[in-house]
Design brief:
38 residues, 2 strands, alpha+beta, flat, 21% helix
Length: 38
Amino acid sequence: MVNDGKDLSQDAHAKDLESMGISVVSGSHPLTLLDKIQ
């Protein structure tokens, strides 16, 4: 998973990662990411 506070919706690198099946979360840092911390 990649997370960035910037909007990556038009970022070529983010699109490449998504095409490889990697989750890209951008525009904010959602609190739900904290639920996945072990």
